[in-house]
Specification:
heterodimer, A: 253 residues, Rossmann fold, Arc Repressor Mutant, subunit A, 2 domains, 6 strands, globular, B: alpha+beta, Beta-Lactamase, Heat Shock Protein 90, five-stranded antiparallel beta sheet
C-alpha cells in the first residue's frame, strides 16, 4: 500500500507551485532562503486521513513535493527508506498503540538516514520528549499539532527545519520559562534577555531573533553572550546545540 | 473360748487397725489439703507418692502417666532410702508388668514376683532390685490417666487391702487432676479468647493481611512458648508462600517469597497432602531435613488452617518439648487464625473490588481522552486548516475576514479542548511516567513548586495515577485556598511502597470534611490499599502524605 501511494504520488510528477508561498519572516543567512528554488520532497505520517490530506495539500501549495503518505509507523519507515525524502512530518501518536510510535520512528530514521529533516507533531508538547528528540540529531522540529493551522508560520518553520534549524514549540518554551521558582536563576536576566532566551530555546538563529524583536543582529549577539555568562551556559557551536542546552537548563532549573 | 492372750492379740490388731486407719486418714488429709490449695502438680504428686509409700510400708512409690502412642511417663517417685529415681522418663507400654496390667484392665493389679515380669518397665524395676509391685489406676473423667504403684526391694508382704487403700489416694489425685485439667483448659480458653480479641481488633483496624499474618504467628509463638512460629500459605498453583516468621530462627526464604526446598516428608508436604496436623521429631532423620536442622530446629509441629472449607495453609511451631496434645491445642488456636484470615481476605477482596472500580473509572477517562484526541481534536484542526486554506492570503474582502475569524474561534475551541483533555487524563503520565508528569504539574502551578521524584522506571498505572491526582489536587488547593508561597512535592519509591508527600507553607486548616477534594483523594488511596494522612494545623501549612503499595495487583490482596 505504501509503495502504491508512493507510485501514485510519483506519477503525478513533482509539483512545483509557489503560489500562496508566505514571505518568510526569518530570511537570515543559512536559513530557508537559498533552498527555495529546489523542490523539497516530503513524507507524511498521520493516521487521521482528513488532517493528513489537509497538511499534504498545504505543503504542495507551498512548494513541497509530498512523495508519500501513511497512517502508521511501519509504513512510514518503508516509505522513508525507499523515497529518501528531505523531510518527514510525523504524528507522534499512531496505531497500533496510540502512544509514542512517531517518536520511535523518528529515532530509527535519525539512525539510518541522519540527513533527513524530521518534524514531530503532537497534541501535547512535553519537555522530555523534546530533549529526547533533539538529542538524536539536528534538523529536528517538535511542534504542537495545531500549529499546522497557522499556515504561513508553519510553512516557514518547516522550511527552516529542512534548511538545518531545530525548532521547539513556543508553548513548551513558554511553559518552561514561566514556571515559577522560589529562587529563580532567570531572575538575573533582564526582560529583554528573557525574551531572547525564549527565542533561543525555540530554535531561532541570531538573525531570526533580530528579526523578531526588531534589533540588529549585533545587539542580539550581545544579549546572547550576556545570557550565557549570567546563566553559566557554555558557548555552543550550532543553533541546534544551543536549543538543547537552553532546554536542559530551563527544565533543570 | 478366747484366751486372754488371744484377746490381747485381738485388741492389738484392732489397735493396729485403728492406728492404721488414723494414719491413713491423716495422709489423705494432707494430700487433700494440697489439692484444695491447688498446689503445683509436681508438688502434689511428690507428696502423694511419699504418703503412699510410707503408709503402705513400701520401699518405693511411683506415679506415672499414660501418653498417646502407647507410652508411659514417670511423673514422680519416692524411695524409702531417699535415693532418687529418674523422673520424666518415657517407656513403651509393653510386656507383663503392673503398668501394663492396669492399662489393659483399668483396674488395680499386682505382680508378686519379677521373675515372671517382662518388658522395659520390668527390666528397669529389676535393675533397681524391685521384687513385688502393686498398682492402681488413676481414672480422670472416665478415662485412664495414669497409674500409682508401690513396690518393695526387701521382703515385703503387701497389706491385703492394699488395692483399696491405693484407690483412696488415686481417687483424690484424679479429682485434683480433673480440677487442674479444667483449670488449664479454662486458662487456655481465656488466653485463646484474648488472642482472638487482639487479632479481631487488628482485622477491624484494617491492617493489611501481611500484618495480620505476622500478628497471628506472633500469638502462636507466645501461646506455645516455643522457639519459632511460621505461617505458610498454600497457593492455588501448587506452590507455597512463607507469609510470616516469628521467633528466634530465620529460614533461608524471606517472608513473602515462595516457600521452597522443604523436605518431601516434612510438615509442609505432609499437611498439604493429608490436610491434617503433622509433626517431625527429628529433622536429622528425615530426607531433606538438613536446612531446618541447620536453622536450629530439630523438631516441630504443624497444624492446617482451613478457610471457608479450603486448605489455606499451615502454622508451625518448634523446636522444643512438643507435648503430645500440642496439635489439639494448636488446632483450637488455628480456628481463630482461620477467622482472622477469612476476615482479612474479605477485606482484601473489598479493597480489590474498590481498586477495580477506581481502575475502571480511570480506564474510562483514558478512553475518553483518547477519543477526544483522536476524534474531535483532529477534526477541529483539520477544519481550521480547511477554513484557512480556503482563503487566499492577503485578500481584504469581508467574507475572507469572516472566515479567518471563524478559523480563529475554532482554533481557540481546539486549544480549550486540549486543556480539558489534560484534565480528564494526563497523557504525559501514560507516555512518560510519574516524574515528567509531576514536574509538568509543578511547572504549571501558579506558585513555585519544587519537585523531587526518586522513582526508577515505571510503576503500575493505578499507583502512578493515584499519586498524580494527589499532587494535582494538593497543588490546586495550595494555590486556591492555602495562600502558600511555595510547595514541596516529594515522591520516593522504596521497596514495595511509593511514598508521596506534598507540603505547603500556607494558612493550613484544611478540613477533609469541608467538601474539598481531600475526601475523594483519601478514597482513591484507600482503594489502592494505601494510607493517606493529612496534617493541617491552622497557621502552619498543610502536609499530605500517602503511601501506596507497589504491586502489579495494587491493593488486590491475594
Amino acid at each position: 500500500m505504501a509503495d502504491e501511494k508512493l507510485r501514485s504520488r510519483a506519477a503525478t510528477g513533482p509539483v512545483v507551485d509557489n503560489h500562496g508561498m508566505p514571505s518568510p519572516t526569518d530570511p537570515g543567512p543559512g536559513d530557508a532562503a537559498p533552498q527555495r528554488e529546489r523542490t523539497r520532497r516530503v513524507v507524511l505520517a498521520d493516521d487521521d486521513v482528513l488532517l493528513r490530506e489537509g497538511i499534504a495539500s498545504l505543503l504542495e501549495r507551498s512548494g513541497f513535493d509530498v512523495v508519500g503518505q501513511t497512517g502508521n509507523a511501519v509504513e512510514l519507515l518503508a516509505l522513508v527508506r525507499s523515497a529518501r525524502p528531505e523531510l518527514a512530518i510525523i504524528d507522534i501518536r499512531m496505531p497500533p498503540g496510540h502512544a509514542t510510535e512517531g517518536l520511535e520512528a523518528a529515532r530509527v530514521i535519525r539512525a539510518e538516514l541522519p540527513g533527513t529533516a524530521i518534524v514531530v507533531l503532537s497534541a501535547h508538547v512535553e519537555v522530555d520528549q523534546a530533549m529526547e528528540l533533539l538529542a538524536d540529531g539536528e534538523r529536528t522540529g517538535y511542534l504542537l499539532k495545531s500549529r499546522v493551522t497557522d499556515v504561513a508560520a508553519f510553512i516557514e518553520t518547516v522550511e527552516r527545519i529542512t534548511a538545518g534549524a531545530s525548532v521547539v514549540d513556543p508553548s513548551l518554551v513558554q511553559e518552561l520559562v514561566k514556571a515559577r521558582r522560589r529562587r529563580d536563576p532567570l531572575d538575573v536576566l533582564s526582560p529583554r534577555e528573557r525574551e531572547v532566551l525564549a527565542l533561543m530555546a525555540e530554535g531561532a538563529s541570531n538573525a531570526g531573533i533580530a528579526n523578531r524583536i526588531v534589533v540588529t543582529e549585533g545587539t542580539v549577539e550581545k544579549h546572547v553572550r550576556s545570557i550565557l555568562t549570567k546563566l553559566d551556559l557554555p558557548e555552543s557551536g550550532t543553533d541546534h546545540r544551543r536549543v538543547l542546552a537552553v532546554l536542559r537548563f530551563l527544565e533543570a532549573r | 473360748m478366747p484366751t486372754r492372750q488371744a484377746r490381747t492379740r485381738e485388741q492389738a490388731i484392732v489397735g493396729d487397725q485403728t492406728r492404721q486407719l488414723a494414719d491413713e486418714q491423716a495422709a489423705l488429709r494432707r494430700v487433700a489439703t494440697l489439692v484444695a490449695h491447688v498446689a503445683p502438680a509436681d508438688e502434689l504428686f511428690a507428696a502423694a507418692v511419699a504418703e503412699v509409700g510410707r503408709l503402705l510400708a513400701a520401699d518405693y512409690a511411683r506415679l506415672a502417666r499414660y501418653e498417646p502412642g502407647d507410652l508411659i511417663t514417670v511423673m514422680s517417685t519416692w524411695t524409702r532410702s531417699g535415693s532418687r529415681l529418674p523422673v520424666g522418663q518415657g517407656f513403651p507400654i509393653a510386656g507383663r508388668n503392673v503398668s501394663v496390667l492396669v492399662w489393659q484392665t483399668g483396674r488395680p493389679a499386682r505382680v508378686d514376683s519379677f521373675a515372671d515380669a517382662s518388658g522395659p518397665i520390668a527390666a528397669e524395676a529389676r535393675a533397681h532390685g524391685v521384687r513385688c509391685t502393686v498398682g492402681a489406676p488413676i481414672i480422670v473423667d472416665g478415662r485412664i490417666w495414669g497409674v500409682m504403684s508401690v513396690g518393695a526391694i526387701q521382703e515385703w508382704t503387701p497389706p491385703v487391702d492394699i488395692e483399696a487403700r491405693l484407690a483412696s489416694f488415686t481417687d483424690l489425685l484424679a479429682t485434683a487432676i480433673a480440677n487442674a485439667k479444667a483449670d488449664q483448659e479454662l486458662r487456655e480458653l481465656v488466653a485463646t479468647q484474648a488472642a482472638l480479641r487482639r487479632l479481631a481488633m487488628l482485622v477491624a483496624r484494617g491492617e493489611p493481611p501481611e500484618a495480620v499474618f505476622a500478628a497471628v504467628t506472633r500469638e502462636a509463638l507466645g501461646f506455645f512458648g516455643l522457639g519459632t512460629a511460621r505461617m505458610i500459605r498454600f497457593e492455588r498453583d501448587g506452590t507455597a508462600t512463607l507469609v510470616a516468621n516469628e521467633g528466634r530462627t530465620v529460614p533461608d526464604v524471606r517472608v513473602g517469597d515462595p516457600w521452597v526446598g522443604y523436605p518431601p516428608n516434612g510438615l509442609t508436604a505432609t499437611v498439604r497432602r493429608t490436610g491434617r496436623a503433622a509433626r517431625v521429631d527429628d529433622y536429622g532423620a528425615i530426607e531433606g531435613g538438613e536446612a531446618t536442622l541447620r536453622e536450629g530446629i530439630r523438631s516441630a509441629v504443624a497444624v492446617p488452617i482451613h478457610v471457608d472449607g479450603r486448605l489455606w495453609g499451615l502454622i508451625a511451631v518448634g523446636p522444643g518439648p512438643l507435648p503430645s496434645n500440642l496439635e489439639r491445642r494448636m488446632a483450637a488456636f488455628t480456628d481463630l487464625v482461620a477467622t482472622a484470615v477469612a476476615n482479612a481476605q474479605t477485606r482484601a477482596e473489598l479493597i480489590a473490588s474498590r481498586a477495580r472500580i477506581v481502575a475502571a473509572a480511570d480506564d474510562a477517562r483514558r478512553q475518553i481522552e483518547r477519543d477526544l484526541h483522536d476524534g474531535a481534536q483532529q477534526r477541529l484542526i483539520a477544519l481550521t486548516l480547511r477554513l484557512r486554506s480556503a482563503v487566499a492570503p492577503h485578500r481584504g474582502d469581508e467574507a475572507s475576514a469572516e472566515i479567518m475569524d471563524v478559523a480563529a474561534e475554532v482554533m481557540a475551541v481546539t486549544n480549550e479542548l486540549r486543556e480539558i483533555c489534560r484534565g480528564i487524563h494526563p497523557a504525559i503520565l501514560s507516555s512518560q511516567g510519574l516524574r515528567p508528569a509531576l514536574r509538568s504539574l509543578g511547572r504549571r502551578s501558579a506558585i513555585p513548586v519544587t519537585v523531587d521524584v526518586r522513582v526508577n522506571g515505571r510503576l503500575p498505572e493505578p499507583v502512578e495515577v493515584g499519586a498524580y491526582y494527589v499532587v494535582s489536587e494538593m497543588l490546586t488547593n495550595a494555590a486556591k485556598h492555602a495562600r502558600a508561597s511555595v510547595v514541596e512535592v516529594d515522591a520516593e519509591a522504596s521497596g514495595a511502597r511509593l511514598r508521596v508527600c506534598v507540603r505547603d507553607d500556607g494558612v493550613g486548616g484544611a478540613d477533609p470534611l469541608q467538601g474539598s477534594g481531600l475526601v475523594g483523594l483519601k478514597d482513591r488511596i484507600d482503594a489502592l490499599g494505601g494510607t493517606f494522612s493529612l496534617h493541617s494545623p491552622a497557621g502552619t501549612g498543610t502536609t499530605v502524605c500517602c503511601e501506596l503499595p507497589i504491586s502489579a495487583d495494587a491493593g488486590g490482596g491475594e
